[in-house]
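Is this the right way to post structure tokens for a design question? Let me know if I should format differently. Anyway, here goes:
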């Protein structure tokens, strides 16, 4: 089969198209003929060498849609020919958290204390014509959900869905969406609005103003034009934001914490711009603020996400599509300042 492999750590130029043996599913596994694979910052972080245990060559790709192509022994949950999305967490089914349906907290692999156990990072991923996943990770897609949306739901969709739950957003909350043009940001705007809350987008590219408003943004703050915290205080009569959804990490931490209202909740799901931050506990405790972590989501979250897409309640803006052989350009497109939404590989 054809697969795009990371052959050395560095930049996207180290992605190489290779012809390799088509993998065979083991017990409890299925082989998927990949039709779409999302391109995400987590893939780029693998090329950059941030996943220290990766053996090269390695096939990235964690946002996977395809058709079940072959069953390994002792698989009864899916059938050959079914269209499936790949649930984002590898899990043991037996630990304290798996038994509660919280596979995203599975404690079977000690590496998960700092890195999520995702297909494509802990296993070979979806930048390939075929991939192997545990059968329990193959989640059937409702017929009403198109391929692009079904693919994007498996990583961005489920991550945004779960993070909105973790944020405990209620009607009337003012919610700052940091990184509004990304795959997650474009979903946050829609999901926040659907909860009757008021999303405020932060962006470095005001060319997307109309698109953000179309997705539900009440107001858009240009982070290149001035101090984000000052602008938040001005917009909220000094009160600040009830919730800040920030998937970007250290670079925006100071502004995001500074923008919080009393009782406000900062929610993070990633460390793209760095993991180390400092926190002044005095205003934090005195104003009863919270810092909340959120990582991916469960299979239940993915099923709920598919159902919501089938009902037409939100959409995934697609920035660009590439063939498998164009994966390096697709990865570069993640950094395109004009990007709004998803970058996808169309494979099968
Ligand atoms: Zn577990």
């Amino acid at each position: 089969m054809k697969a795009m492999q990371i052959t050395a750590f560095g930049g996207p130029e180290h992605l190489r198209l290779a012809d390799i043996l088509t993998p065979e599913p083991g017990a409890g596994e299925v082989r998927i003929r990949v039709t779409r694979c999302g391109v995400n910052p987590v893939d780029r972080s693998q090329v950059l060498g941030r996943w220290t245990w990766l053996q090269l060559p390695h096939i990235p790709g964690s946002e996977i849609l395809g058709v079940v192509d072959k069953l390994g022994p002792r698989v009864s949950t899916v059938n050959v020919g079914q269209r499936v999305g790949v649930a984002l967490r590898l899990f043991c089914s037996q630990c304290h958290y798996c038994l509660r349906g919280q596979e995203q907290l599975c404690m079977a692999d000690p590496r998960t204390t700092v890195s999520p156990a995702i297909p494509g990072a802990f296993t070979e991923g979806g930048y390939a014509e075929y991939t192997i996943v545990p059968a329990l990770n193959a989640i059937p897609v409702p017929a009403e959900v198109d391929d692009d949306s079904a693919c994007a739901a498996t990583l961005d969709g489920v991550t945004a869905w779960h993070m909105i739950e973790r944020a405990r957003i209620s009607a009337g909350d003012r919610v700052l969406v940091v990184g509004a043009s990304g795959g997650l940001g474009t979903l946050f705007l829609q999901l926040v609005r659907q909860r009757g809350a008021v999303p405020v987008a932060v962006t470095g590219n005001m060319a997307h103003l109309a698109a953000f408003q179309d997705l539900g943004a009440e107001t858009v703050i240009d982070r290149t034009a001035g101090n984000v915290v000052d602008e938040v205080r001005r917009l909220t009569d000094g009160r600040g934001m009830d919730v800040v959804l920030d998937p970007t990490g250290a670079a925006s931490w100071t502004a995001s914490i500074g923008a919080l209202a009393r009782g406000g909740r900062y929610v993070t799901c990633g460390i793209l711009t760095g993991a180390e931050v400092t926190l002044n506990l005095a205003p934090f405790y005195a104003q009863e603020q919270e810092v909340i972590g959120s990582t991916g989501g469960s299979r239940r979250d993915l099923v709920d996400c598919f159902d919501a897409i089938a009902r037409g309640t939100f959409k995934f803006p697609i920035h660009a599509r590439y063939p498998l052989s164009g994966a390096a350009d697709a990865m570069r497109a993640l950094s395109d300042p004009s990007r709004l939404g998803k970058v996808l590989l169309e494979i099968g």
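Format looks fine. Someone answered above. Worth noting: The chain has a mean pLDDT of 96. The radius of gyration is 20 Å.
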